Amino acid sequence: MNWDDTSSVTDDTQAGRLVGAAADGEDQAVEAALRPKSLDEFVGQERVREQLDLVLKAARQRGATADHVLLSGAPGLGKTTLSMIIAAEMGAPIRITSGPAIQHAGDLAAILSSLQEGEVLFLDEIHRMSRPAEEMLYMAMEDFRVDVIVGKGPGATAIPLELPPFTLVGATTRAGLLPPPLRDRFGFTAHMEFYEPVELERVIHRSASLLNVEIGADGAAEIAGRSRGTPRIANRLLRRVRDYAQVKADGVISRDIAAAALAVYEVDARGLDRLDRAVLQALLKLFGGGPVGLSTLAVAVGEERETVEEVAEPFLVREGLLARTPRGRVATPAAWAHLGLTPPRQATGGNGQQDLFGA
Ligand SMILES: Nc1ncnc2c1ncn2[C@@H]1O[C@H](COP(=O)(O)OP(=O)(O)OP(=O)(O)O)[C@@H](O)[C@H]1O
C-alpha cells in the first residue's frame, strides 16, 4: 500500500463540491485559460515570488539549469501554475506527471531518460510516489544519473544512464510526509499560504476580465470572502455567479448578485457549504457544542467518518469554528455566533467548555 493514500479519499469525497479545493473536470478545462503566465502576473505569495525570482534570475545569469524546487501547500493555491511559470521564465519546456502515475522505477526511468537539457519536470503529489521510484529519483536529482536494472535475480545488472541536467519541481500538499533524503535534495522549498481576501479579489478581477465578465469591486469582495483562501475556488464561484448574473440579471456582477447567486449554491458568507453547516449544526443543536466523538457526529449528519474528518473539518478548524480535543469535537464560541445560536450557559461559563480550549 502507498504510504499516504488519504488524498485520494479526499479527492473522491470532494467530487462535485463547489467549495472543494481539488480540481474537477470543468476546472481543468477552464483553468488553462486563467493561469497567470509569468511571475509578475501571479497574484500574492509575495515572499515565494521574490525568492523564486532570485533563484531563476541567478540561474539564467549563470546560464545554468535552475535548482530543484519543492512547492508545498493545499490544493488549488497555484502549485501547477507556478511550475509552468518556472519553465516559462527559464525558457524551458515542461513535462507534467504525478506521483500516483509513477508506480514503477521503470516508469520514472522512461520519463527521465527522455528529458531535454534544462527541461522542467513537474511531479505533482510527489509524496505518493512508490518507494523504488523515489530512490531512483534521489540519484537523478543529485548526480543526473540513474541505474537501470536489466534482468532479474542474481543475474541482474545495473546499467548507469547519464541524464541531461533538468529542474525537478515537486508539489505536495504535505511536505512533512516527504522522507528527509528527498526533501533535502531540493535547492529551494516554497510553502504556499492561503490567500488573503484582497489577493483573491485581484485574482477574481483578473479572471473576470479574461472571461469578459463585468464585475464591481463589491461583487469581487463578496466572492473573495466565500472562497476559502483558495484561487481555484474563487475562479469556480466566479463562474457560477456569472451564470446567475447572466440568467437572472443584466450580466453585471454586483455584491447583491454575488450574494444571491451563492445563496442558491448554499455557500454562505464565510465560505461554508451545506456539509460544513450540517456538521456545525449537529454539533451545536444535538450535542450542545460538544465534546462529541467523530463517529457519533458523522452518524448524526449521515456521512462517513472520513468525509466529516477530511472534507468538512479541516476548514472548520482553520476558521476557528471547531476544535479537535482529546475528549471529542467541540464547537468554539465563533461557531455559535456564525449560526446565530445562543450557547448553553456552560459553553460560555468559566468552568465549562472553555476549559477544553484553555487547559
Ligand atoms: N497566484 C495566483 N494568481 C492568479 N491565479 C491563480 C493563482 N494561483 C492559482 N491561480 C488559479 O487557480 C487555479 C488553480 O491553480 P493550480 O492548478 O496551479 O493549483 P494547484 O496548487 O496546482 O492545485 P492542485 O494541488 O490541485 O494541483 C488556476 O486556474 C489558476 O488560474
Automatic annotation (TrEMBL):
Annotated AAA+ ATPase domain residues: 65-196
Pfam families registered for this protein in UniProt: AAA_lid_4, RuvB_N, WHD_RuvB
Reaction(s) catalysed by this chain's protein: ATP + H2O = ADP + phosphate + H(+)
EC number(s) reported in the record: 3.6.4.-
Region of interest: Small ATPAse domain (RuvB-S): 196-266
A molecular function (GO) term: four-way junction DNA binding
Coiled-coil blocks: none
InterPro entries (alphabetical): AAA+_ATPase, AAA_lid_4, DNA_helicase_Holl-junc_RuvB, P-loop_NTPase, RuvB-like_N, RuvB_wg_C, WH-like_DNA-bd_sf, WH_DNA-bd_sf
Keywords: ATP-binding, Cytoplasm, DNA damage, DNA recombination, DNA repair, DNA-binding, Helicase, Hydrolase, Nucleotide-binding
Top-level taxon of origin: Bacteria
Enzymatic class: hydrolase
Biased composition (Polar residues): 1-13
Binding positions for ATP per the UniProt entry: L34, R35, G76, K79, T80, T81, E142, D143, F144, R185, Y195, R232
The protein's role, per its UniProt record: The RuvA-RuvB-RuvC complex processes Holliday junction (HJ) DNA during genetic recombination and DNA repair, while the RuvA-RuvB complex plays an important role in the rescue of blocked DNA replication forks via replication fork reversal (RFR). RuvA specifically binds to HJ cruciform DNA, conferring on it an open structure. The RuvB hexamer acts as an ATP-dependent pump, pulling dsDNA into and through the RuvAB complex. RuvB forms 2 homohexamers on either side of HJ DNA bound by 1 or 2 RuvA tetramers; 4 subunits per hexamer contact DNA at a time.
Free-text comment on this protein's domains from its UniProt entry: Has 3 domains, the large (RuvB-L) and small ATPase (RuvB-S) domains and the C-terminal head (RuvB-H) domain. The head domain binds DNA, while the ATPase domains jointly bind ATP, ADP or are empty depending on the state of the subunit in the translocation cycle. During a single DNA translocation step the structure of each domain remains the same, but their relative positions change.
Protein family membership: Belongs to the RuvB family.
Protein name: Holliday junction branch migration complex subunit RuvB
Species the sequence originates in: Streptomyces jeddahensis
Gene that encodes the chain: ruvB
